Amino acid sequence: MGRFRNRLLVLIIGLVIVTQTVTLAAVLLSTRRTVEARAAEQLRSGGTLAEHLIGFRAGQLANGVALLAADFGFREAVASGHTPTILSAARNHAQRIGADMVLVLDTHGRVLASTAAAADDAGGSFAGLLEDAAALRDQPNFHVFGAHSYQFFLAPVRTPETIAWVAMGFIADETLAARIRDLVGFEVAIVTHGAGGRTRIAATLPASSGAATATAFQAASDLPRITRLGDTDYLSFARPLAVRGDSVDVTLLKPLADVLAPYRELRDAMLLIDGVALLLAAVIGAVLGRSATRPIGELVRAAQRIERGQYGTAVDVAGGEEFQRLAATFNAMQSNIAAREADITYHAYHDPLTALPNRAGASRTLEALIAGTAREAAAALVLIELRNLRDINASLGLQVGDEVLREVARRLQQNIAPTDTVARLGETQFLVIAPGCTAERAPLYAGQLVAVIRGGFHLAGVSLDLRLACGVCLFPVHGGNADELLQRVQVALEEADETRMRVALYRPGQDQEHRRRLALVTDLRRAIDGDQLSLVYQPKVAMASRSVRSLEALVRWTHPELGVVSPAEFVPLAERTGGSRHLTNWVLSAAIRQMGEWRRQGLELDLAVNLSAPDILDLDLNDEILRLLRRDQVEPTSLLLEITESAVMRDAQIAVRNMQWLRIAGIRFAIDDFGTGHSSLSQLSVLPVDELKIDRSFVSPGDPSAVTIVTSTIELGHSMGLKVVAEGVEDAAAWNLLRRLGCDFAQGYLISPPLPPAEVPGFVRQANQVLAESDSTVRQIRALDQLAGRSTR
């Protein structure tokens, strides 16, 4: 708020300063120009007066010279040539008119008599004056004689012829300058520019101005100038005089300080006025700023209360109508904010469909319960999931699904204890928090709630059979905070879902298994991207020819921390989390690349690769497989893709179409784990497959029912033109049985465990040599034992 007040004060003072500055500058500039113009005009007028004064002296001098030249006694003296008499007459007459100099010249310009030392300058100086003597009689003449400048007139001495010339003059010195100064009121400098650069200056300037030199005075002009003499500036005006002889300028000077004295007085007065105005503006600005910011400060404090969530204090400010309206707006705003915040808070912690607390609300309730419950007290969490709600939504519509959820919420609320809390955690999950529920009672309580939900469920004229799963965990046995308890009751629910139990109680250690699965899911993607998986290859023996012509590629993963991870663990995880296609792409790429390397080594083998359940339904799989085959130059007929019955049965139409496209390219298919799925003979007849693989669980000669299944499968496959492969051949009895029944291929540890790529070529060559030479069953078994690295008794 201080910043706003300061800004307001600065604004007001700034406006005053700008206004006063502009006004002051304009007035002072105009005043200075006026003062300088007036002083210049005074100097011009003074110059005119000075010229008139000099002209008056010139007239006086002309009369005196004429009287002296006409005086009879003076003419007689000049005619006699007696110098003392001439000087006496000249001095008497000069005294009468106040002349400073009298010269008597002969007709050749030589000095006959002189009352001043100027006669020492004779020579050619005076001879030149006589050349235009007639013109000089009516005009004043200035000339530099010695150290002084003189104003003089010439007149002829006639008897009656001109026998001589007489000249009388005044010195143009400081006395003359002082008389002019007294007349015009300004300092005066008389500057005479003599021949040969001789300049004489007579000035009234004070001694502090320094010596006046010719360079200090500019040529005459119609415009006044600033002249600096010593440390003083003068406004000067030089006026040329209309005289004969040497040129003469009369310069009038007025100290610039005196010229600008009226201007400075006005300036000082206006600066004082501006200072007072500025002070008043600061006082007024401070008062206005304080009165303007006081209501704003109240509004700021009100906004800070609203920011802290305090909406109960009404805003009341003094001031103008605008502030009153703003305060009313603030009051309405904080009232609306309080209402909206309460509504937002309610919806943040409640489910809009069932009006039950949501996950955040349940977590807050659970944290409050834990904080207010002694550690020895017990509480139970019961998490119930509607497993077939999505089927209900798909078959009966979302409205019916919403009604199911509302009905489940109603039944739970009606059948729980008053201290219990029901919350909806997710789309299909409901949580019951039961304080005081013991470990013995919790499973029974959960079973009762499940029964209440399932019993007599009728909606939209339809009787619904809800499939439920329930997980239970206990406080403080299974967790000490809300996050742990919610996680572990979820783990218990997943346990119930996986084991097909209706109610499952959390077992210590289950969360470790859960974390292991999460770690495997995360690290599997990283392992695939980092090429950290590996493939091993298990040979298959063609029983009729006793030769190894094909292999099955099996993926292996050694986790850097968990060690060897079984494919039975991480492959289903990849399928459930949507990462099976990424894994399949890696397996196909690595297997086909290995086939290409073996073929370049001269080893022609067929290779079987397992596809995950979702892969055969992926429309992009076909292009990817064909691209990999072209990349490594592998014949499509060498690749056999193994799929399970359940994978095909997910969407038989799409699966058959994709298989047919690959079959046209030459790729073959095998049904893996035949007999464990749900396919019918009619469906099997339309599948474009080439082989059937009997599951290892049926290859057991000691079990008559298993022998019957193997016999039927081999006969069925042959009748449909399919090859039959038996996997899991572990002993000689199984080998003999399959050989007797006419099975096409055998695969298992009796032949060889899965081999790393480097050992495959040597094994295949040895097996094809040893088995080909074994024409009896006994010799074949011995050969197989030899290949597997075992000795027979």
In words, what does this structure look like?
- The chain is an alpha/beta fold and 793 residues long.
- The protein is built from 25 helices and 27 strands.
- It has an 8-stranded mixed β-barrel with strand order 19-20-22-23-24-25-26-27, surrounded by 5 helices. A 6-stranded mixed β-sheet has the order 2-1-5-4-3-10.
- Strand 24, helix 21 (681-686) and strand 25 (691-694) form a beta-alpha-beta unit.
Give a quick summary of the entry.
The protein has 793 residues and is an alpha/beta fold.
Q: How is this fold's topology laid out?
A:
Elements: H1 2-70, H2 72-80, H3 83-97, E1 101-105, E2 111-114, H4 124-127, H5 133-136, E3 141-145, E4 148-158, E5 162-171, H6 174-184, E6 187-193, E7 199-203, E8 225-229, E9 232-240, E10 244-245, E11 247-255, H7 256-259, H8 261-307, H9 321-348, H10 359-372, E12 379-386, H11 389-396, H12 398-414, E13 421-424, E14 429-435, H13 441-454, E15 458-459, E16 462-463, E17 468-475, H14 482-499, E18 503-505, H15 510-529, E19 533-542, E20 547-559, E21 563-565, H16 567-576, H17 580-600, E22 606-610, H18 621-632, E23 639-644, H19 645-650, H20 652-665, E24 668-674, H21 681-686, E25 691-694, H22 704-719, E26 723-727, H23 732-741, E27 745-747, H24 760-772, H25 777-787
Parallel strand pairs: 3-10, 17-18, 20-22, 22-23, 23-24, 24-25, 25-26, 26-27
Antiparallel strand pairs: 1-2, 1-5, 3-4, 4-5, 6-7, 6-11, 8-9, 9-11, 12-14, 12-17, 13-14, 15-16, 19-20, 19-27, 20-21
